[in-house]
Amino acid sequence: MTLRSTLRAFFTTGKGVVRGLTEEAAGSDPLVLFDRWYREARDAGLYLPESMALATATSDGRPSVRQVLLKAFDERGFVFYTNYESQKGMEIAENPRAALAIHWPILQRQVRINGTVEKTSTEESEAYFASRPRGSRLGAWASDQSSVLRDREELEGRFRETQHRFGSGDIPLPSFWGGYRVVPEKIEFWQGRANRLHDRLLFRRADGAWTIERLYP
User: Fold this and answer.
1) What pLDDT shows up at residue 208?
2) Is the dihedral of CA 85, 127, 53, 1 positive or negative?
3) Contact of 8 with 44, CB cutoff 8 Å
């Protein structure tokens, strides 16, 4: 972060900590509130404000967590992209539920999301894949994600083979790669406050409508 970005972030932090998060300010739609918080994190100049922890589990409940990037969100849910044959992809196939945690520490804010997981449409995946840098598209084809790799040279060799395969032509979306959407059932907003008396507002969705309740910090 630049000095200017750091100062902007601290200014935003002060507002959040002093003003807190009231039910009136949160409103009735958590996606509207998330959009506002996300834009404030981005405008504060934070590095990778779209970074989020993704937790999945096997069918027998063995959890795993990793950082991924939030690539889109709307009223349908929160989207990330990956190899469907990766560990996360296999776990989602077994147990299509997930949790997300997005933390903006300098703003003393975090958002927790729980819900079911579905694949994005092929059209959505193709559109996003086409927007990626050419090297990233080649890398998606070259990497047998989460499988055991003998050494770095093997990976770089596969990348060179992929470069040769596609040459200067188009690089299509692999059949084993695409997007997932976490369809939220619960979204919790956490705003840091003085004396660790933080604000926690939890939205729950039932029958298409959101309810809101305040939690002890």
Assistant:
1) 87
2) positive
3) yes
Q: What is the CATH number of the domain that holds 102?
A: 2.30.110.10
- The radius of gyration of the chain's CA atoms, rounded to the nearest angstrom, is 20
Mean pLDDT of 106-111: 96
- DSSP-derived 3-state class of residue 201: strand
Mean predicted lDDT score pLDDT of the chain? 94
Taking the C-alpha atoms of residue 172 and residue 211, their distance in angstroms, rounded to an integer, is 42
Indicate whether 165 belongs to any domain: no
pLDDT in tens, 36-71: 999 999 999 999 999 999 999 999 999 999 999 999
Q: What are phi and psi of 100, to 5 degrees?
A: -120, 145
Active centre residues (catalytic): 196
Residue with tokens 């200017």, as numbered in its chain: 4
> Cα 94–98–104 angle (5° rounding)?
150
Q: What's the structural domain count of the chain? A: 1
85: CB partners within 8 A, 6+ apart: 144, 145, 146, 176
